[in-house]
Design brief:
Blueprint lengths: L1 H21 L5 H20 L8 H10 L7 E5 L5 H10 L2 E6 L2 H14 L4 E4 L12 E4 L3 H14 L5 E5 L8 E5 L10 E5 L2
Parallel strand pairs: 1-2, 1-4, 2-3, 4-5
Antiparallel strand pairs: 5-7, 6-7
Helix pairs in contact: 1-5, 3-4
The structure holds S-adenosylmethionine.
């Protein structure tokens, strides 16, 4: 049922794009709107990763692994449709914040927030511009190149003791505290866990 709703929402979000592409491009408003939507979306892909959600079962398991205590501050940097922060807030009582740079995906996260009736916050923008000093736990699913660039930011912007769960890709040169291996049955990617020292 949830997947059906999600598909419908995604189709609804895609409709404006189909609509704009069919428009007479003399319409300056349409061109500007198209640019306003597509450029940040492509930018998000180049800046961090394209929108590929973590499979729901894997996301649930990762959040469970984090053993979140009520009131802990949890971020998903590049939160996609918000699944990590909704699970963290709704199931474990976290103060959860998702940051998303792609406008369409951000909109999708906001719509899903209504379905989840979640108290998690979804913020728009580049996570590199946010202060993450209050984070107890950070989830991310970003490309290796981005994780490489993320390293100095993590060193400066997060406090000692923060735990980072990176889905699928490792943060280079960081000492792992735990690895959850690839799930052979469902072929879910591994999870790499780090702690800021
Ligand atoms: C691979 S998806 C993961 C989504 C979600 N975390 C999950 O695991 O289901 C990466 C997301 O990060 C977003 N993103 C990429 N670079 C970003 C940045 N610099 N700031 C905020 N979001 C970013 C992308 O738009 C995309 O939605």
């Amino acid at each position: 049922m949830a997947d059906l709703i999600l598909s419908l929402v995604t189709i609804l979000l895609a409709l404006p794009l189909v609509y704009f592409s069919a428009l007479n491009l003399n319409n300056i408003f349409a061109i500007l709107l198209l640019i306003a939507i597509t450029i940040p979306t492509i930018y998000a892909m180049l800046k961090g990763a394209p929108f590929v959600p973590t499979p729901m079962k894997r996301a649930e398991k990762i959040v469970k692994m984090a053993k979140i205590k009520k009131g802990q501050v949890v971020y998903d940097i590049g939160c996609g449709d918000g699944r990590f922060v909704y699970i963290a807030a709704n199931k474990y009582g976290a103060k959860a914040i998702g940051i998303e740079l792609s406008p369409l995906v951000y909109l999708l996260a906001l719509i899903r927030k209504l379905f989840w009736r979640s108290k998690a916050h979804i913020k728009y923008g580049d996570f590199a511009l946010y202060n993450l000093k209050n984070a107890d736990i950070i989830f991310c699913y970003l490309l290796p190149d981005t994780l490489k660039k993320l390293q100095p930011m993590i060193d400066k912007k997060i406090k000692k003791g923060t735990i980072i769960y990176s889905y699928a890709f490792q943060i280079p040169n960081w000492k792992l505290i735990h690895t959850e291996d690839r799930d052979k049955e469902s072929n879910f990617a591994p999870v790499f866990v780090y702690q800021k020292i």
